[in-house]
Target: Alpha-amylase
Amino acid sequence: MRMPLLLLAAVLGGTALVPAAADLPAAPATAPVRGPIVQMFQWPWDSIAQECTSFLGPKGFGAVQVSPPQEHVVLADAGYPWYQDYQPVSYQLRSRRGNREQFAAMVQTCNAAGVQIYADAVVNHMSGTGSAGSGPGSGGSSYSKYDYPGVYSDADFHGCRRDIANYDDKWEVRNCELVGLADLATESEYVRNTEIAYLNDLVGLGVSGFRVDGVKHLPPEDVGAIFGALQDVPGTGAKPYVFQEVIADGTTTAGEYAGNGDVTEFAYYGTVANAFKNGSLAGLANLPDQMPLPSEQAVVFIDNHDTQRSSPTLTYKDGVAYDLAVAFELAYPYGTPQLISSFAFDNPDAGPPAAADGTTEAAGCDNSAWVCEHRRTIIAGMAGFHAAVQDAELTGWWDNGNGQIAFGRGDAGFVVINREGGELSQAFQTSLPAGTYCNVMTGELSGGSCTGDAVEVGGDGKFTATVAANSGVALHAGAKLG
Model:
């Protein structure tokens, strides 16, 4: 994260002691879903439930990353900014997006639609200096910095009570305060067990995984002890999927945390987003060789809620260039793709559309205040492409040395992307079986016909197409007529 529950006694009382690091089970590597993860940033629980049933499940999305579900500060004087949700004051499930009952119903509904829920977990810190005196929290809890009645007291926080000044000092990064946020002593057995109880509460409701916020500010062994001690997801026999936000630098590497689960690969966002912004795509041919993490441990993205605001190389505001970059992310076989569906903003601190008391209004794609990137034609079509090609190998890479590329995914799919200002017209060699395919960048297979363009692949695996400027063609076996 970058930005300017009270637990029931019965829950805490039933928490097992933290096991030794050597005894921790290995976290699953790569997301256990076919479709991509989509971060439904700041969407309320009822709206996510509806979207899982009406769109995300049917279109092949695999999981939703939801915003932090725990009670948080309420910053009315600052206009209820987005980042208030990343300042916990307790672990009860009552945020501006809904209450415990609504959260549980959303998880159940999405799971039934074939869409897993991954919760954004804030375990490094509690509230900050900037929220002092703003209480109560979103669930009505009273608190002050370093004192959260029934949860944490002064002794549960690190003694370095100043902002991180030197990011070259790993001790300081992990023990001092990130922009004034009370830094939890996660090496403490009590703190670990309190967080494990909260996370297991979410797992018990059917949450299948976690995105872990601000991981570079935590020692790897603390992350491993907390998330390695989680119970199995009900009905699966599997541990929750874990992916960790690590903004690597010269002091902290993503690889330090790979033993705990997957890691967000910020180098990918820099490389791919810049290539599509500049229109020079040929250099992406050997993308894995440019990445610090192996594919099976990387979670990749074109933008997320932080980069949209702090370093917006490409966002929804960039139109088709953004859509094509996401299409590439969903087509090229590197990493687990994470998308975002966000709300429109001009002020980087602005929160989501809200009522007068700061509670989030219902999200919906018929309201222009919600961007709904996941419903854009190219992105929605490529979610199904990603689900269809899965582990098929990269084949037949072609490029013109600049902004036009094409490649296959074995005999399961084929993609052409034209990021240049002129048409691309030629024959393409694929490994696809002969037949008529829907170009899922322009529509879908519905009722036995294509709602967008149709492409004929011959018996030799070739097809000829004229690809307009800043557009593409994507064919896969799941969108083949007949």
